[in-house]
Automatic annotation (TrEMBL):
Alphabetized GO MF terms: hydrolase activity
Xref: InterPro entries: Amidohydro-rel, Metal_Hydrolase
Alphabetical list of SUPFAM superfamilies matching this protein: Metallo-dependent hydrolases
Residue ranges crossing the lipid bilayer per the database entry: none
Native organism taxonomy: Eukaryota, Fungi, Dikarya, Basidiomycota, Agaricomycotina
Domain Amidohydrolase-related: 242-385
Domain of life: Eukaryota
Protein name (database record): Amidohydrolase-related domain-containing protein
Organism of this sequence: Pisolithus tinctorius Marx 270
Length: 395
């Protein structure tokens, strides 16, 4: 942490409570080491994760911050030492050490992450770390994963049952919004309409694969688009925001692909996740020209270097209205992900806005107010949470 010269700005950045608008559950104590801990700061997999990611600036920074948190001495603060120390800590103690200083007042948890049902705690379990109750984000692909072998008129029954489940979720006061991972599977170029024949063919192909593997996957574009249209219509009717992962394949991951569907569902609130990195400027443009588009600035903490994080936040602020930017940790599996994302994002917000104040582009009061909106008030308004900021939750 650099020198603090703007007291009001620092109070907003480091002490204002936050609403984590997109996160995932923590692992159970029994499964605390089931996944490689390197996944706490990297989206890589396999040898790229275990062998190469440890040489990134993101890893070096995470190592430094976690070593300090765990009280490791200089010279005993490399990545392996951090892993050894965390494994020696009682799990409840580890969770408390990481979550308490984060300043998170409320978490919106997507509990549909692959493996969550088998290895992670339920979303309500996380209430012990927050002042306000945890709410759910419903992953629509998980809601669609039912056994199709019991249906007769396949598409009609499948669509009807899926829509009924989504309506039930929309009426659930503990559900804050819906999320799609269509970008992982078939891209963000979601069609605003589709031929019944194409959807039927996609569903039949998915059903055939299910009978062979007992795993219902959604890798067929016509079917994914069909599900997305159903949810977008219902989400608009019930005023539940819809979140979209902006992930790989890169060529189909720019949120610019979503312009037709954004226009087609003007009553539905779209929240672009993960800072839309590396298409941050595209996302910023969409938030500026469409009333129903918002941008989540998560996952870049701690996955990018500090310079990369500052540069990305600056790109967001180039064009995005500051009342449409939502904070998140994208915390998942390990409590350290919540800690690192919170600490790093708060520091970056201070750095970026202190620079704006120094250049006389904003007053300190304006900068502090914007940070408070980004951390808390924007999510509170968009999700209709009705929360009052608890100003003393950061110890």
């Amino acid at each position: 942490m650099g020198p603090i010269t703007h007291i009001d700005l620092a109070r907003a950045a480091f002490a204002y409570p936050a609403i984590d608008n997109h996160a995932h559950p923590l692992l159970t104590e029994e499964h605390r080491n089931i996944f490689p801990f390197e996944g706490s700061y990297s989206e890589a997999a396999g040898e790229a994760l275990t062998d190469d990611s440890v040489h990134t600036l993101a890893c070096y920074r995470s190592t430094f911050q976690l070593a300090k948190l765990f009280g490791l001495k200089s010279g005993e603060d490399d990545w392996e030492a951090v892993k050894k120390k965390r494994s020696s800590l009682d799990y409840a103690q580890l969770c408390k050490i990481c979550m308490q200083p984060s300043g998170i007042q409320c978490i919106l948890i997507d509990d549909g992450l692959s493996g969550a049902r088998d290895f992670a705690e339920g979303y309500k379990w996380h209430d012990q770390f927050t002042f306000s109750p945890t709410r759910r984000i419903v992953r629509i692909e998980v809601e669609a994963q039912v056994d199709p072998s019991t249906v007769s008129n396949l598409l009609v029954t499948f669509s009807h049952n899926f829509e009924a489940r989504i309506v039930t979720c929309a009426n659930d006061t503990e559900v804050a919004g819906f999320k799609s991972i269509a970008c992982y599977r078939t891209g963000l170029d979601i069609s605003t309409s589709g031929a019944k024949e194409d959807v039927e063919k996609s569903l039949l192909e998915a059903w055939t694969e299910y009978k062979e593997t007992s795993d219902l996957q959604f890798k067929h574009k016509a079917l994914n688009d069909h599900l997305a249209r159903i949810v977008l219509r219902i989400a608009g009717r019930y005023r539940k925001p819809g979140l979209g992962d902006n992930d790989i394949t890169l060529t189909k991951s720019s949120p610019a692909h979503m312009q037709p569907v954004i226009k087609a569902f003007p009553e539905t609130t779209f929240i672009l996740l993960h800072t839309s990195y590396p298409y941050t400027r595209d996302a910023g443009y969409l938030t500026a020209v469409y009333k129903n588009v918002y941008l989540d600035f998560g996952e870049i903490f701690p996955c990018l270097s500090a310079d990369g994080q500052r540069a990305t936040v600056k790109q967001i602020l180039e064009l995005s209205p500051t009342n449409k930017i939502l904070w998140s940790t994208d915390g998942h599996w390990w409590p350290e992900t919540y800690y690192l994302a919170s600490m790093q994002s708060r520091q970056v917000l201070y750095d970026v806005f202190a620079d704006c104040v120094r250049r006389e582009e904003l007053t300190e009061t304006q900068a502090a107010t914007i940070i408070e909106k980004m951390l808390f008030h924007n999510s509170n308004r968009v999700y209709g949470l009705g929360l009052t900021p608890k100003l003393d939750i950061i110890m």
